[in-house]
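Re: export button greyed out
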Amino acid sequence: MPPEVPYGTLDLMVLKTLDTMGALHGYGIARRIEQVAQGSLALNQGTIYPALLRLEQKGWISSEWGASENNRRARFYSITRAGRKQLAAETDNWVRTMAIVNRLLEHER
Amino acid sequence: MTLRVLASRLQAAVSGAKRDRALDEEIETHLHLLMDQYVRQGLSPRDARFAARRAFGGVEQTREAYRDQRGLLFLEQFAQDVRFALRQLRGNTGFAITAILTLGLGIGVSAAMFNVVDAVLLRPLSYPDSERLVAVYEAVPSGVAPVNAAHFLEWQSNATVFDELALLNAVAMNLTDSGQPERLIGARVSPNLFPMLGATLQFGRAFTPEEDQVGRDRVIVLDDGLWRRRFGADPSIIGRMVTLNGDRYEVIGVLAPSFHFPSFEQLYSVPSTTPRPEFWKPFGLAEGERNPIGNFNYVSIGRLKRGVSVADATRDIDRLEVEIGRHLPQRLDLHGVVRPLHAQVVEQSRIGIELLFAAVVVVWAIGSLNLLNLWLVRSLARRNELAIREALGAGRGRLMRQVMVEAFTVTAFGAVAAVVVAYASVRSIVFLAPAALPRLDEIAFDARGWLYIAATAAGSALILGLVPARHATHVAVRRGTTEGRDVGQFRRFLVAAQVALTAISLVIAGLLLQSFLNLLAVDKGFVTRNMTVVELNLIGSRYDSLAARAAFLRALEERAAQLPGVSAAAVSNKAPLTGAGQSSSISLERTTVPPLERPAADVRPVSPQFFATWGIPLIAGRLFDPSDGNRPVAIVSEFTATHVWPNQNPIGQRFRFGLMPAAPLVEVIGVVRDMRNIQLDRAPSFAAYMPYWQRDSQVASLAVRTRTPSLSIASALRDVVRSLDPDLPLQSIRSMDDVVAQGTAPRRFQLNVVVLLAASALGLACLGLFGVLSYAVVQRRTEIGIRLALGAAPGSIQRLIARGALPLTFIGLALGLPAAVAAGYALRPLLFGLTPADPAILTGASVVIFAIGLAAAYVPARRAASLDPMTVLRCN
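Workaround output, generated via the alternate export path:
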């Protein structure tokens, strides 16, 4: 069973996706995350919406209505400047945490 | 249900459905895109739809998680707002304390008064079905009168509108066992009264119909208060025998403390000072009381049948009364009066209570206007901050919400303070209020008080939140520090309103104060200086005849007159201003006046020394003398002489007391000056005096005048009484000054409260003016700086600022004085000796208001004059 996505990491992944890909709607974001994870992540795509709302409430992304590929109305999300700053900080954090954990694990052996 | 979910539901209720629908649309699009993807990957449309749903996950869960997230924000923002509000208050403690105190005192005291108004005036009486309870009276040509027992019996047999009808009257008895002899006030009642009022007993039983006969009626029921006070709350009291007026009575019951009964002062249709009964006995109507003419002495309470109106009942009783009147030996014009019991009990106090409530509300309003003003100034000062935040993207809704949360936070603290203040105030009111206040024992701080506080706090929060929010958030950043013209005017309008309200309070306080002074200064007709009064009840086997009582009184007066320091002593039935005495009609020898239209005189058995002792001058004829013996003689008052024998010499005229033609003729031997013998605010009326050895009275009073104010006279008098009869209880020994003070106590209480409130109003209004004028100085700094630089004298600057106070005081007075006069007219029953539009008081109030206007302007004016023009102009 592929691992579930933890709460905070989803936010990070969404921000990174929007940073890389520009404006996307909910389906687009979910699809991109799945693609990048190459199937090793099980994501109920619906869970992305509360996360998007949270990110918008915090001011890290903004949204606009537009037309999707199949000509339906959809909200398009893009990262804000505050969001970019947050992304940089979190990425930094993540990398540093990983380094510490790696060193600990090495030591064990 | 977690707080988050609750908050999200709240948020959904407040703003929500639009965003939810938007989400639904997004989900629809997402599902379709997924479907298209699976179709592209080769699935059939049906399989693609299932696959899309599977990949998406639960739609409903998504919706719920979304809503939860929304609610979370709401909660977070609310918590943020509250924290911000608390920080603001902490940073500005002066303002915070002012606001919380103003709210706490204003809401708290008005809540206490509301409790009083509610408990006394609004709530129905504490009996089951109390709207059906009525008091019944008789109407005679000279007015409304208490009930005659024989007529009552007629009503009981023949009235069709009552379920139950009961008769009662007040009775005074001396309790003489175990401990100090004590005079108690009780009630004689028909046995059906307790069931009619739903009275519950904590011990024993009520009366049976068999006990309602003379001889079988030696049973009593005690009031809870008397049981605790006199009998030590003894649970085995039932069956105990007590001695009342020399007779043995069995205690058969004790009433529950939840039973409230009005005082007789409220039940009798004529002025009375009889308090609440402390014990109850069966009525036991005596033969002598069945006289259908005269003895209009009793109170009747009844319960109407369901569906019967007071008008129906009045018609029914009226019908019976007319019949009774027609069949009497002398035809009388009788009618019936039926009043709802609640109205009868509270009507007299209504105006006074409403006045106090209105006064409290006025002071609260003035204080609140101050608070509103302060609040406005504060939010104006923060206008720039809010404008910047708005420009940076904070929604206007968010900002307004934050202002509202601030307002609610402050009022929440104020409400807590208000609860404490209200509770303390109610306790104080109950403690300090005159005992004559109806339903005093039912006043307590209860659920309705809580509700009042919650409602007014919420209302205040809304006003505090909305008014400044409207003014503060509607600005562009470039407006700068100058006060928006509309806000300044609004604030000045608030202050003018304060001045108007203050004017009303001052005028009312002035009217009441002057009335009180008028009352105290009124010519009583007798002298009260250095007078001490002893009140006694001559009941028991030693005083079973007029001769026995007369002998006692003679001895009492002699011994009292010989006490050192005493310059005069006299006995009578009652001293002036201690309540009504005996009332008898004056029937001329050959009169054609119908019986009930004959004047009713206050008749007093007195000693020959009475008039000299009280300083009442003799105008014509002579005083009593022991040599008059048993030949019926009387002295009448001036009023009586001029009204009963107009243009004639009353000396030597003869008349009868009462309505019976067989009564002995009495000769008038003297005329004395009028005196206000019952109440200070009632003009003298018909009065007559007889020698105490000719006219009987159970109650007696000894009055002594000492040469100098004497504190020891009371114990000396007690010794005198005890030397004549050790078992005789003294009802009271008081100085005449105390008697007057007690009689005017309700009025004084009311006056004190109103004056206190008016003084508070004055202080608050002064503060309000001060605030506005100070701010005006700050506003006009530039202008003042220029004037000073151009050579204006500091004095002229001061005058300029002080003049700023004038328009406000003028407008305030223009609004307030007419309103005050109108209020004065509404309060006319409380006034004495003046009209509501008394020019002296109106002028006085205006002068005071101008004075506080100047006082409020003093400091700002000085501050303005001492501005350094260079500093002001430079930093502009």
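Residues 476-482 of chain B have pLDDT under 50 and may be disordered. The button fix ships in the next patch.
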